[in-house]
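Predict the 3D structure for this chain.
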Amino acid sequence: MSFRAVQVTKSDAGQSVGFADLEDADLMDGDVTVRVTHSTVNYKDGLALSGKSAIPRKFPLLLGIDFAGVVETSSHPGFKPGDDVIANGFGLGETHSGGYSQRARVSGDWLVKLPAPFSRAEAMAIGTAGYTAALALDALEQAGVAPEMGPAVVTGAAGGVGSIAIALLAKAGWSVIASTGRTAEADYLKTIGATEILDRVSLSAPAKPLARERWIAGVDSVGSNTLANLLAQTKYRGAIAACGLAGGMDLPGSVAPFILRGVRLIGIDSVQCPMPQRRAAWSRLARDLDRGILASMTQTIPFKDLFATGEAILKGQVRGRVVVELP
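Done. Predicted structure below.
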């Protein structure tokens, strides 16, 4: 069966990314074949679509780290034709062909059944970004921090991870400080649950070893100086969940917050996260994420607009979440 997909190839001249018409024989190995109906655009997808990143590590490869769709064939005991499923991570769009394709073949061990009450489009409005935000909140709670101990800070607040993190934290009773470079989005951020807006400039300068204590918890998708500043301003025995690197992979900070205040830095891995934690995160999203708020932070684009949206997300021009409708 023929289908359309976004494929990356590599030659001596570098990577080439574009739409391609393919056949089922071009799909990779797996015990479940899915008709993909929706995907999304995360920051990592934007990097891969640019053709200038190290995200794809096998060639040729179909890009897209998320998808939602309907099972067509399955030899996996957990899935049958007609099941609505979602996939995030496990190397999709990196080492295994992913969701920017009308068809996907993957291991059933990577799939999660679509949780009620979400539609497939809503699941991709959440996508890896929202699922990562849920993992971060679960990790902070396991670290023992709670709303009565102080506020939580969220960086990259107007982006995908940030937007859903704010909504989930607010639902859980937190006072949320939203850090953003797009101060024009203040009304939007307050609508989804932020109580205070912080200009990201105040977190972008080189960090002091320790600074005035301001928050007990945080979700960071930026890294670099921003993360170092978050740690330096975290209250005694607080915790920061780190899940992104939009500002850089470096961490130019000090051990002082860790050894003098007992601050904890928790790494959030969404790619190889074990299935029990993965299902728990999706259960939390189904229970706590207001679908009206999700709709307010979501835009939907056709498959053909994927590359333009990938460029926009790298420039920080995308607010909230993007759903990609596959034809």
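The mean pLDDT is 97.
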